[in-house]
């Protein structure tokens, strides 16, 4: 079980070593945002919790760092060091599963073909419907605008956040959960942009904001979950959303797609929590 989430590896290691000195079995795990101190024996939870409260009150006491000297862990653990220094491509692959990478790769391919003049996004079968009634024999058009990007800044921003957040969801909760989030937020955000603005749009940002909303709220509703988004990141992306609405960003932004995607992702977080599908 997770005893506590630390932002600093140094602090997590110091407390971990102190618990080990007290014969409280534990380990450190990490995700992209924090270091989780995990207890190996639930019977030791009460004692560990009491020690944690003392540590948080005064984490700079000599006894915590002397525990690291005693155990020999005075620096970053070798496993963590290997993770940080491993090859960039290896980190990229290990962070996410095949679904995250497939969406990432398809977006890059479409953008590359568009940049070379070999593909016209708005005239393609991937664009949203341009008129009603919708032709439901081409229902993929409700989703596929998510793969279309129109500038380097556009695709880089979207894919970095997609890789980061989708990778966490896929690794921790599985491909099915990520697929549900992707489809639901893509359809919801694309429909909102169509009805409120125009049929000429594209980009993964509605889905990205769906993941932002999902990860942030899921973490709030399920405190021990490794699927979460720190408030600082959520605040930054919320600020970016606001800037889009007041039209000060250096590119055209599908504001309503962002907003509806965010709300759709939050709705998924509420539903899976209520249904206790919290893996």
UniProtKB/TrEMBL annotation:
GO molecular function list: peptidase activity
The UniProt record lists the Peptidase S54 GlpG peptidase N-terminal domain at 3-83
Pfam family example for this protein?
A: Rhomboid_N
Highest taxon above the source species: Bacteria
Q: Which UniProt keywords apply?
A: Cell inner membrane, Cell membrane, Hydrolase, Membrane, Protease, Transmembrane, Transmembrane helix
Chief place of localization: membrane
Family matches, as InterPro entries:
GlpG_N_sf, Peptidase_S54_GlpG_N, Peptidase_S54_rhomboid_dom, Rhomboid-like_sf, Rhomboid_protease_GlpG
Q: Where in the cell is it found?
A: Membrane
Q: Keyword Manganese on this protein?
A: no
Q: How does the UniProt record describe the way this protein sits in the membrane?
A: Multi-pass membrane protein
Q: Which residues cross the membrane?
A: 102-122, 142-166, 178-195, 201-219, 231-250, 256-275
Peptidase S54 rhomboid domain residues are 138-273
In its UniProt record, which GO terms are filed under biological process? Answer: proteolysis
Q: What is this protein called?
A: Rhomboid family intramembrane serine protease GlpG
What is the native source organism of this protein?
Psychromonas marina
């Amino acid at each position: 079980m997770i005893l506590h989430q630390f932002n600093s590896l140094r602090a997590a290691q110091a407390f971990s070593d102190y618990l080990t000195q007290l014969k409280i079995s534990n380990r450190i795990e990490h995700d992209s945002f924090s270091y989780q101190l995990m207890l190996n024996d639930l019977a030791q939870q009460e004692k560990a919790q009491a020690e944690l409260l003392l540590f948080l009150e005064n984490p700079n006491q000599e006894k915590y760092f002397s525990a690291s000297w005693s155990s020999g862990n005075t620096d970053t653990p070798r496993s963590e060091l290997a993770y940080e220094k491993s090859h960039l491509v290896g980190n990229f692959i290990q962070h996410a599963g095949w679904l995250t990478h497939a969406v990432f790769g398809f977006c890059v391919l479409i953008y590359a073909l568009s940049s070379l003049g070999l593909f016209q996004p708005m005239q393609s079968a991937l664009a949203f419907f341009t008129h009603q009634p919708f032709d439901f024999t081409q229902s993929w058009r409700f989703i596929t605008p998510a793969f279309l990007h129109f500038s380097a800044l556009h695709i880089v921003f979207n894919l970095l956040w997609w890789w980061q957040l989708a990778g966490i969801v896929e690794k921790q909760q599985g491909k099915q959960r990520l697929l549900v989030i992707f489809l639901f937020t893509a359809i919801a955000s694309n429909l909102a942009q169509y009805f409120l603005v125009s049929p000429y749009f594209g980009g993964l940002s509605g889905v990205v904001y769906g993941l932002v909303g999902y990860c942030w709220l899921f973490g709030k509703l399920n405190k021990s979950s490794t699927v979460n988004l720190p408030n600082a990141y959520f605040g930054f992306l919320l600020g970016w959303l606001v800037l889009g609405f007041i039209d000060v960003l250096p590119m055209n932004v599908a504001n309503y797609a962002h907003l509806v995607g965010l709300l759709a992702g939050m709705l998924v977080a509420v539903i899976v929590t209520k249904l206790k599908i919290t893996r």
